[in-house]
Structure formats: C-alpha cells, structure tokens
Amino acid sequence: MTDNKQRIVFFDGVCNLCNASVQTILKNDKQQLFYFASLQSEFASQFFLEHQYQAPTATIIYFDGEMFYHKTGAVLRIARKLRFPFPLLYGLIIFPPFIRNGVYDFIAKYRYTWFGKTESCMMPKPQWKQRFLG
Fold first, then answer.
1. Which end of the chain is more exposed for a tag (fewer CB within 10 A), N or C?
2. 132 part of a folded domain
3. Is residue 71 part of a domain?
C-alpha cells in the first residue's frame, strides 16, 4: 500500500480552502516529500483502520511516517518542510495548542461559507497525479 516513511496529508476533498492549500503545498514542496489523500477516500478509511487511528473530523491530518498530527500541529509541521518563507510559520508552534487550534477551529467552522465547497474532489494536474493516494 504505502511506504511507512511516506508523509501523507489527508484533507477535506470538497473544501475549496483545503484544495487550495493542497495546491500551495504541491507548488512549494520542491523535494516532493508529501503525498495526499482525501478524507472522503477509501484509502483514508483503510489507512486509519490499519493504523488504528481514530481520525478527527473537519480537520487536516498529517502522517509523518510515524505519528499523526491534526489542526495546527499538522499545518505547522507541513509548512516547516516547504520552501521559504513557509518554514517561518513554524515559529507559531510557541503558542499553546488551545490558542492555535482555537483560530484553526474558527476558520474551519466558516470555511465553506467563506471559500465555498465543490461537488467532488479536485483533479490533480498530470505532473502531480502520482502524489495522490487512492
């Protein structure tokens, strides 16, 4: 299925903000470290089951090959691996998770209202297709 060292970003496949975030990661991941799977996919369900992970809903989830992270824990760890200036965002890790995740939850609550929703998961560009799982 997947190499345990793969870094996988699980995202809401019908959220326009989430899809735009995935495209930003792809454009700024020059080392091609990250792979992607929609939270709605069969791959995600099976992966979480195999790893005995109870996935939280309405959040980004990042698997770094060993551990799962979600919300700002995921966002900041992903940003740290992208090209400049994104690694600077990792400095926000100094704020307590309840503060960081409070902001994340507020944005997540209104993301469909502010950014919209698509009927289906995004179709990746041909050069990125191999980085999408499931």
1. N
2. no
3. yes
